[in-house]
Specification:
By secondary structure, this protein is of the alpha/beta class. It has 2 domains: 58 residues, no CATH class; 211 residues, Rossmann fold. The chain has 11 helices and 14 strands.
Length: 270
């Protein structure tokens, strides 16, 4: 037995999958992975979330989604803002009747459509290639080398960006002829743009639809201000701590002061 073969045999399955993923990037733009009963085409350029999904065949979004569905009554339409390649949209269809998925980055939007079709779910998903914001127009989308890190905002020095269409979430729902009362959950992963997305979704907020958002300490006060008195309860879906909505800014600040994360996935309820 050669030394190289012995080293390969000592690798865990995760190690072997990680090595395969990195080697595959030299030959192909995407690889397929089966996770939670679904098949996803994952970009080999995504050295963060994509590589993690391929290596582990799971992800935090799967866990968080199950926790959310245990706390609400899933129904109607699932709305995913910042849907990436569909790793939340498609699992959500096990709980919801249909989905509206909004993704601004063109390559991710293409893979989102492909993954829906690959799993024969395309007739239950409406995909919008756009960014959600407070008003219609064009916005700058910063492009991250890690495909899951794209975000609306001015690019930093050395960062690439692309101009994309922006549309209020209320307009997206209206264009699809969906009543706000038929939306069962709004899920947002928009890299700090949460306040602007919510300002474009006042009709949905007035219907008190449950919301899941990755909220940062620096943006929490703006989010709470937009929510106003429409929502009262919040749950940190990572620690499962419950708190009043108005305490979110202080709660997230404390997390950061303790040397922990400065953001978390939050379920917001009326």
């Amino acid at each position: 037995m050669t030394g190289r073969l012995r080293r390969l045999l000592r690798l865990t399955e995760g190690d072997r999958r990680e090595r395969f993923f990195r080697d595959a990037a030299r030959f192909t733009d995407v690889v397929a992975v089966e996770a939670h009963g679904l098949t996803f085409l994952v970009p080999t350029a995504d050295a963060a979330a994509g590589e993690r999904l391929f290596r582990t065949r799971t992800g935090s979004e799967f866990i968080v989604l199950e926790r959310v569905c245990g706390r609400i009554e899933p129904r109607g339409v699932f709305v995913d803002v910042g849907a990436n390649i569909g790793t939340t949209t498609l699992p959500a269809l096990k709980h919801f009747d249909s989905a509206v998925a909004v993704e601004a980055e063109p390559r991710n939007a293409t893979l989102l459509r492909a993954n829906a079709a690959l799993n024969r779910l395309d007739e239950r998903v409406i995909v919008h290639q756009a960014a959600c914001s407070s008003a219609s127009g064009k916005v700058e989308l910063r492009l991250s080398e890690k495909h899951g890190g794209h975000a609306v905002g001015a690019p930093k020095p050395g960062e690439a960006s692309v101009r994309v269409t922006a549309v209020p979430l209320d307009d997206v729902i209206a264009a699809d002829r969906i009543a706000a009362s038929d939306v069962g959950l709004v899920w947002m992963d928009v890299g700090g743009h949460e306040e602007q997305v919510l300002r474009g979704a006042i009709g949905l907020l007035d219907s008190h639809v449950p919301i899941v958002a990755e909220i940062r300490s620096r943006t929490a006060r703006g989010v709470v201000d937009v929510l106003g008195d429409r929502y009262t309860r919040a749950t940190d879906l990572r620690s499962e701590a419950d708190l009043p909505v108005e305490e979110l800014p202080k709660y997230l600040s404390r997390l950061g002061e303790r040397g922990g994360r400065k953001f978390t996935d939050v379920l917001i309820l009326a």
